[in-house]
Amino acid sequence: MSTLQSSEKLSPYHIVILVYMTQFGVIIFSLPQLLSKAFGTNGWVMNLIFAIIVIVNMLLIGAAYWMGKGKSIFVILERAMPRIMLYPLYLFLMFVWSVLGCLVAKEYVLIFQMIAFPTTHPMFFKIALDLLVFWLMIQGIYNISKSITMLFYLTIWMLPVVCFFYADFSWSRLTPFFFREGQPSPVEFVNIFASYLGYELILMVFPYTDKKSKLIKSSIIGSLLLAFIYTYLCIITFGFFSLRQLQRMAFPLLDLMAYIKFPFIERVENLFFGAFLFTTVATVVMYLWSAQETALQVFKRANVKLVAGVLVIFAYVIAFIPDTLSDVQHWLGLFAQLEIGIAFILPLLLVVVLAFTKNKKEAAS
Amino acid sequence: MKNAPIRLRRALICMLLLLFMPGCGDQRILEKLGFVQASSYDLGENGQLEVTITMPKADQNAGQRRDVLSLMARTGKEARVKLTRESNLQLVSGQLRNSLFGMSLARKGLLKHLDTFQRDPSISPRVKLSVVRGNAKSMLERNYPNQPIISRYIEGLLQKESMGQNIPVSTLYTFIRDYYDDGIDPVMPVLRNKSDNIIIDGIALFRGDKYIAEIPADDGMVFSFLRGSFKLGELSIHLSEGEPGGDTVMITSIVSKRKVRVSRSAEGAPEITIQVRLKGTVIEYTGGLSLDRPAEKHTLEKQIDKELVKEANEMIAFMQKHKTDAIGIGIAVRNHMSYGAWKQMKWPEMYPTVKVKCNFHFEIMNAGKVVE
Questions:
Q1: Chain B contacts in chain A segment 271-330 (CB below 8 A)
Q2: Which listed residue, of A8, A234, A353, B134, carries a Cα 20 to 30 Å from B81's Cα?
Q3: CA-based nearest distance A266→chain B, Å
Q4: Distance in Å from the first CA to the final CA of chain A
Q5: How much is the pLDDT for B247?
Q6: Which of B11, B25, B338 comes nearest A119 by C-beta?
Q7: Which of A12, A2, A24, A3 lies closest to A283, judged by CA?
Q8: Per-block mean pLDDT, blocks of 10 residues, chain B (372 long)
Q9: What residue intervals traverse the membrane (chain A) (predicted)?
Q10: Please, how many CA atoms are within 13 Å of residue A221, restricted to the half-sphere of its CB?
Q11: Which DSSP category does B212 fall into?
C-alpha cells in the first residue's frame, strides 16, 4: 500500500460527509427535469424510492463488510481465487471508475463553459480541476475525507438560499396527481439513479475503518442526508415551475439560482455554480482514488504518485472524446449502467465468496 | 523536506495561473460592451420582426446618454447579429431588464419570440415583459426629459405598481410558467405613452401565448384579489356608483387572502366559489356613516363587499366571454378531481360555461385618526 496512507481510521462523522459529498454531483442540476420527464407530476416522490434502493444496496455491502470483518475487498477476493483470475475484474473496475470520474468532471466543466466562458476550450478548465484532484487523491483516504469535510462546509451554506423561492412556490402547482404525464423507461431510471451513485465506493474504504467507524450506519445516514436534500430541492423546483415548463428545461436548478436577486447583486448563479465545483471535486476524487486503489493491487510495487498521475492523464485523455454536453450525458448514462451493476454484483460476489470460504474453513476444521 | 515550501509555492503559482488564465480566453472589456437594457419587438412588414434595443453609452459626454438601434429581421437573435454591425460595441444581453411587445405582435403570439429568452443562459428569468399599446419601438425611441434611462424608468414603474398589486408581476419566468401550466393563462401589463411619460394602461389577458383582451388598470386591484393572496395594497372604491354624489372610500395596507372552493352541481359540472377575505385601513371616507360605531362600520364593510362582488362578477364574466383563465380557476378545479376526470373535462372548453360565485369579506382594521 501507499506510503502516504495514514494508519488512522475514519470517524463516523467523516464517513457521513464523505458519502454525502461523493453522491452529490452535477446531475442535481438536471435531476428535477429528469424526474418530471420520466415520472411526470410529483416526480420528486421517486427520490424516496431511490433512497430505499440505495439503502438496500448499502445493507448488501454491509453484509460483505460484517462477514469479512472489515477486511479489504481485495484480501477477501484473493483468498478465494488466484490473483491472475482477478486481474480482468480489477482492470474493469479501474476503467469504469476512472472514466466515471472524468465524465462527471467534464459535465461540470461543460456547464460552466456554457454559462460563463462560451468560447474558451473546456479542457483548459479541466486541467485545473484535474490538478486539484491529483493532489487530493495522492493524500490517502483519511486526508481526502478531511478535505472533503472542509469542501462540504464550503457548499452547504447555499441551502438556506432556497428560502428565496418560497414566495413563488405554490403547492397547487404540484397538482394532486402522482406520476402522470411522464414517460418512464429503464434508461431514464438508470440516468436518474446515476445522481445517487457514489455510495458504492465505501466498498473501497473497508480497511480504513474499525468498529468505531460504524461504516454502514454512517454511510446510510450520509445517503439519507443526500436523499433529504435532493427531495427538498426537487419539491421546491416542482412547485416553482409548472410541469410542462420543467420538462423542457435542461438545467432547472440553474434557472432557479438565476432567479435569486439580492438588493446589491443580481445574476448570482455564476457564483453559486462556482461553489458546486467543490462537490464535483469530491465525487471525482473518490472515483479516481478508488481506481487508484485498484490499480495498486495490479501494480503492487508502483509508486502511488505515478499511478495517480497515469490515471488522471488517462481520464483527461478520455474526456477529450465526448465533446458536447449531450455526448457526455449519454456516456454518463452508459457508465452509470455499468456502475449500478458493480454496486450490486460486487458486494454479492463478496458475500458468496465469504460464505464459500467460511464453509470450506468449517469443513476443514 | 527543505524544498517543501518552495514546492508548495510553485504549486500555488501554478493553480493561480490556471485560475486566472481562462480570463484571457473569453475577454469582456467593459468599454467595448454594449449592455442591452431594454428591447422591443413589433410586427413588421411581410411578417418580419422589427427589433429595437437601447443601451447606455459609455461616453456620456457625447450628448445623448443612450443608443437606440432598430432594424427588421426574422428573429430576435438575427437582429442582434445585424445590430452589432451598426454599433462599435459588442452587444450583450446580461443586463436586459425589460422587453416590450407591440400589440399587433402580441395578438399573433409571443412564444416563438420568447424561445431565445429561455435558451440564452445570459438572459435573466427576471426580465420584465409588457405589451405596448400601438408601437413598442416608438416608446423605446422616444426621449423622456425627466427620465434619461428609459429601461430603469420602465422597470421602476412596473416594480412599484406590482408591489402595490395594481398590476400582476410579469416576468419571463411567470409568463412561461403560466403558459405551460394547464389551469391558468399568462398576463402582462399594458403600457402606453402619455405626453412625456409612460403610463400603465391595463392588464393584457392571454389565451396561450396570444393577447386576447384587456382589463382596465383601474380594476387591477380587484384582479389581484381574484388571482391570489397578498399583503400590501391600496384601493379606492366608489360606493353606490352611478348615483349622484356617491361616496368614496380609500383603503390602504390591504391584506388579502383568496380561497377557491370547488363543488359539484346536480349535473356534475364544477361550481366555483372564490372567497376573498380582506383587511385594511380606511384613510379616506366621504360618506355619512360613523366608523366608530360597530354597527355603522359593519354597514360600510357590507357596502364595500357588495361593490367588490359586483366588480369581480363582471370581471369574471368578461374573462369567461374571452375564454381566458387569467386568475387560474382551472388550477383549483384540477386539484379537486382525479387525473382521468380532469383530462376528460377539457377545461378550456368547459371554462366559459362554469358557474363562478364571488364572496368578499372586508374587515376595517381601523379608520385612521378621526373619531366621529
A1: none
A2: B134
A3: 9
A4: 32
A5: 86
A6: B25
A7: A24
A8: 63 70 71 89 90 81 76 86 85 90 95 90 92 94 87 92 90 96 95 92 96 95 93 85 70 93 88 95 87 88 93 96 95 93 91 94 87 74
A9: 12-32, 44-68, 89-111, 123-144, 151-169, 189-208, 220-243, 271-290, 302-322, 334-356
A10: 13
A11: E
d(CA A260, CA B173): 12
Instruction: Examine the fold and report which residue of B196, B220, B244 is the final residue of a domain before the chain moves on.
Output: B220
Share of chain A above pLDDT 70, in %: 98
Closest by Cα among A291, A258, A289, A282 to A105: A282
Is residue B122 within 8 Å of residue B92, measured between CB atoms? yes
| Cβ count near A276 (within 10 Å) | 22
Are the beta carbons of A120 and B22 separated by less than 8 Å?
Answer: yes
Residues B169 and B258 in one domain: no
Q: Is A273 helix (H, G, I), strand (E, B) or coil?
A: helix
- pLDDT (0 to 100) of residue B22: 63
The answer to whether the CB of A105 falls within 8 A of the CB of A134 is: no
A266 vs B124: CB contact, 8 Å cut-off? Answer: yes
Is the CB of residue A351 less than 8 Å from the CB of residue A67? yes
Residues 6 or more apart whose Cβ sits within 8 Å of residue A3: A304
Q: Considering only the C-alpha atoms of chain A, give the largest distance between any 2 of them, rounded to a whole number of Å.
A: 76
If asked whether residues B156 and B61 sit together in one domain, one would say yes
The sign of the CA dihedral A240, A245, A247, A253 is negative
- Kindly state the cell numbers that stand for A95: 476503467
How much of chain A exceeds pLDDT 90, in percent?
73
φ and ψ at B292, to 5 degrees? Answer: -80, -35
Burial class of residue A266 (count of CB atoms within 10 Å of its CB; 0-12, 13-18, 19+): middle
pLDDT digits (tens, 9 = 90+) for A123-136: 888 888 898 899 99
CA distance A207 to A79: 15
Longest dimension (CA), chain B: 98
Residue A4: per-residue pLDDT: 45
- Does one domain contain both B192 and B256? no
Q: What is the pTM of this model?
A: 0.91
Instruction: Give the integer Cα–Cα distance in Å for B184 and B330.
Output: 6
Do B40 and B151 fall within a single domain?
yes
Beta strands (DSSP E) in A312-358 are none
Could you say which residues of chain A have pLDDT below 70?
1-7
Find the residue in A nearest to B18 (Cα).
A128
Q: Residue B289 has what pLDDT?
A: 84
Domain with B148, as residue range(s), is: 27-220
Residue B14 included in any domain: no
Consecutive H or E run containing A222: helix A215-240
- Report the amino acid identity of residue A91: L
- One-letter amino acid at A133 equals V
Closest CA to B123 of B98, B155, B95, B81: B95
CB contact under 8 A, A125 and B176: no
Say which of A180, A241, A267 has its CB closest to residue B124.
A267
CA atoms within 13 A on the CB side of B214: 18
CA–CA separation, B13 and B251 (whole Å): 65
Output the domain CATH number for residue B347.
3.30.300.210
- CB count within 10 Å of CB A1 equals 12
Packing angle, helices A46-67 and A31-39, rounded to 10:
110
The DSSP bridge pattern shows strands B90-92 and B98-102 to be unpaired
The string of pLDDT tens digits covering residues A291-302 is: 999 999 999 889
Q: What is the ipTM of this complex?
A: 0.89
Residue A76: the pLDDT is 93
Instruction: Return phi, psi of residue B200, to 5°.
Output: -80, 120
Query: Of the candidates B191, B220, B249, which is a domain's last residue?
Result: B220
Contact state of A119 with B26 under an 8 Å Cβ cutoff: yes
Helices (H) and strands (E) in chain B, counts: 13, 15
Question: Sign of the C-alpha dihedral, residues B118, B122, B127, B131?
Answer: negative
Query: Are A124 and B182 inside 8 Å of each other by CB?
Result: no
